Amino acid sequence: MSGLASSDSGQIVFVIDDDPAILEALDSLLRSVGLDVSCFGSVAAFLDAPRPDIPSCLVLDVRLPGKSGMDFQKELAGSQAPLPVIIMTGHGDIAMSVQAMKAGAIDFLPKPFREQDLLDAIAAALDKDRSRRAHMAELDALRARLATLSDGERDVVAQVVLGRLNKQIAGDLGVSEITVKVRRARAMRKMQAGSLPELVKMIDRLAAESSARGH
Amino acid sequence: MPRTPFLPHLGARVMPVLLVVLAAVIFVLDTITNFEIAVAVLYVAIVLIAVQHLGRRRVVMVAAGCMALTVLSFALTRTGSVTSGLINCAISLVAIGVTTYLALRAAAAEAAAREAQTQLAHITRVTMLGELMASIAHELNQPLTAIVLNGNATLRWLAARPANPDEAGKAAQRIVRDAERATDLIKRLRGLTRRAANKAIWLDVNQVVADTLTLVQHEAVRNNIALRTELDDDLPLLQADPVQIQQVVLNLALNAFEAVVGGKERDVTLTTGPGKPGEIIVAVSDSGRGLDSVQPDRIFDAFYTTKPEGLGMGLAISRSIVESHGGRIWAEPAMPRGASFFFSLPTGRTKARGSGQ
Predict the structure, then answer these.
(1) Could you tell me if B144 lies within 8 Å of chain A, comparing CB atoms?
(2) How many separate helices (H) and strands (E) can be counted in chain B?
(3) Residue A92: enclosing H or E segment and its boundaries?
(4) Which of B267, B282, B275 is nearest to B208 (CA)?
(5) Domain boundaries, chain A
(6) Hey, are the CB atoms on B142 and A22 less than 8 Å from each other?
(7) pLDDT tens for each residue of B192-224
(8) Which ipTM score applies to this complex?
(9) Backbone angles phi, psi at B237, to 5 degrees
(10) Whole-angstrom Cα distance, residue B46 to residue B18?
(11) Does the beta carbon of B158 lie under 8 angstroms from any beta carbon of chain A?
């Protein structure tokens, strides 16, 4: 249970099941391995509750009153902050498990399941959410640094990452080569890039992210 | 004790005699009357009767016999115009042939329809059973899942450093509670079956056996099974649910049929008689493959089956019916071969056991 033994409370497991007996049991089991747990009887109750902005995952029963687990899973997968989902079911068939996995479920657990399968799935789900959050945080930081560049610096960076020489850039922008060198050094410092390849990589990541959002 | 005669049984004995007498009368009339009178056409009656009671091959044999008698009469008749006789003989032969053909075809269609109906009934029963099973399985699954999770939680709270007996105790309490929930569900299911046994009336076991046999008579004829009954006329009435007892007899009879089909000797015998004091015993014996390939102590368990498409529910249901009536069900090897299934029902009760709910 590596990765689960943390009791730093920096992560939380959400559970949605309409059977109180299952909720109580899961609550106790997950707390016994040091996880923070928050239980809900329906999707609506889950959506109404405030959610802390920390690594988290959702253990979701398929058969629920109101919105079904499968529908909610699809909805989450298409949202801005996709929460990793583990599906539980009392009457699972192969078709349903394929559907759940295709929609991006971490695991599909037919009741009654082995506790280790659930704990492994939760560990994987929390890891996934943690790395997604780290990735997003990194991008946010890069975007913030990029915002600190002046227009002149940004123009120089845009040319530099295309592999053009200082002299060519100076000619294009109508400034002296010294000015280009100064702006380039200042941009590198602001972006916290140790080398030209590093700066290129940063700009590529930001470009990839914005084009991914564009879709 | 009034008892209706068992008609199919009687019919199987009397029918050939009746047909022979009828054929003889027609033959004599046909022979002594002159050629112009075509008494032989009446042979179609024999064919029509035979179709009702005999298998396909025997009907063809009967028809062939009638045709032979027609020709023989023609040869023996001495009076009248030979030309008329020839024409009448030909008409009779055609009539017998066509009647046989049409009657057999109608019988085949009827058999197919009956089989389709039986299959449909079986499918309906299997589907209903399947749905019932699925919903019971789901209802039991929830508390079982909770029990497993609480059990794991208990172990983990106890193994923690430091151990947390408070949380462990709460989880253990939930195990007890959820197990009781599962038990309640099973109690409710038992209550359902008990209520079903409540429709007990005074009934004659021989009558129930006879009623059941009318249901399976066609199946026996179709599969060339010699179905016999040895019913004791001096049995007392008893209190039971006739539909349920009939279900048991039907299950045992159909099992016996399946056991003998494919074998050379296809004998199935239904017997009723007294058992221990205050007990009536019904037995279904077959000359089939016997009980060698089965586990005798398991055949009445649910889901135990030796048939490729069996559900393993027939004998289990039979057992629960018999036991809910206060009786027993068991199996023994039959002599010289095959298997016998017995069930006993108590007499002299004013109520079947289990009806006191």
Answers:
(1) yes
(2) 8, 7
(3) none
(4) B282
(5) 12-135, 148-208
(6) yes
(7) 665 555 577 888 999 889 888 877 887 888 788
(8) 0.76
(9) -70, 160
(10) 9
(11) no
Contact B148 A19 (CB under 8 A): no
CATH architecture classification, A12-135: 3-Layer(aba) Sandwich (3.40)
Q: What is the pLDDT of residue A183?
A: 92
pLDDT at A17: 93
Q: Pick from A13, A28, A31 the residue to mutate for testing the B interface (most B CBs within 10 Å).
A: A28
Written as six digits, the tokens of B71 are 């020709």
Q: Spell out, as residue ranges, where chain B has pLDDT lower than 50.
A: 1-10, 349-357
Interface of A with B (CB under 8 A): 19, 21-22, 24-26, 28-29, 31-33, 90-91, 111-113, 115
Residue B220: both structure tokens together:
């026996």
Low-confidence residues of chain A, pLDDT below 70? Answer: 1-9, 92, 212-215
Peptide bond into A84 cis (omega under 30): no
CATH number at A148-208: 1.10.10.10
Q: What is the set of domains in chain B, with CATH numbers? A: 7-114 (no CATH), 124-196 (1.10.287), 201-346 (3.30.565.10)
Max Cα-Cα span within chain A? 75
SS3 B335: coil
Q: How remote is the C-alpha of B292 from its chain's centroid?
A: 23
DSSP result, B122-162: HHHHHHHHHHHHHHHHHHHHHHHHHHHHHHHHHHHHHHSSS
